[in-house]
Amino acid sequence: MTRKPTLAVWKFSSCDGCQLSLLDCEDELLAVAGAVEIAYFLEASSAVARGPYDLSLVEGSITTPHDAERIHQVRRVSKTLVSIGACATTGGIQALRSAHRLGDLVSAVYARPEYISTLRTSTAIADHVPVDFELQGCPIAKAQLLEVVGALLAGRRANVPTYSVCVECKRAGVPCVLVSRGLPCLGPATQAGCGALCPSYGRGCFGCFGPKEQASDVEAPSLASAFGR
Predict the structure, then answer these.
(1) Which candidate among 43, 50, 93, 125 keeps its CA 20 to 30 Å from the CA of 225?
(2) Residue 147 exposed, middle or buried by CB count within 10 Å (0-12, 13-18, 19+)
(3) Quick one: which of 152, 169, 171 has its CA closest to 203?
(4) Per-10-residue mean pLDDT for the chain, 229 residues long?
(5) CATH code of the domain made up of 6-154
(6) How far apart are CA 73 and CA 157, in angstroms?
(7) What pTM value is reported for the model?
């Protein structure tokens, strides 16, 4: 009997939204479960199989000393490691604290800040260990997640777009909200994957899928000028 590849899903500092994207796959999840052995996924099951694991999906940023130690353990038991979501690929909303005094933030949030053990900054998984693939989004798009899992299991390159949200708008016939309505929109600098969700509803893109791969070709001064800066 052929052994199924083993899949592990790990959580670090995050809201669980990207793990829930996998559970939201519903019918497609049955196909995934049939193709792999879900060996570690505490969001879905308390049953745990020991590693090593063929594929690990990692959600969340590295925010505590325990996180920083644990991610190295995860890397050691993972043949392929994919970071999923904005927290895992960029540090996420937690990284906003880097611009403030950490002590002030901890005191404002926690009644007993002396019990809090945290790092000065919140950083991406790739800042700590080698990552084989990064899947952006807040949360990730389930179609992209299925594509990445399927591609890695099949030994092929994942077909995930690296162009901007503007391309998605044009393909869907969505009017440019920046040009037609004068709304600030980060679509030119943001990686596609959301299906131009916000512009489709008349709102400017706010960049939840992170910078597109070739962000250097964006005319940042022109874009800032359009925002009134």
Answers:
(1) 93
(2) middle
(3) 169
(4) 86 92 80 84 90 95 96 97 95 87 87 88 96 92 89 87 92 93 91 92 91 70 71
(5) 3.40.50.700
(6) 26
(7) 0.86
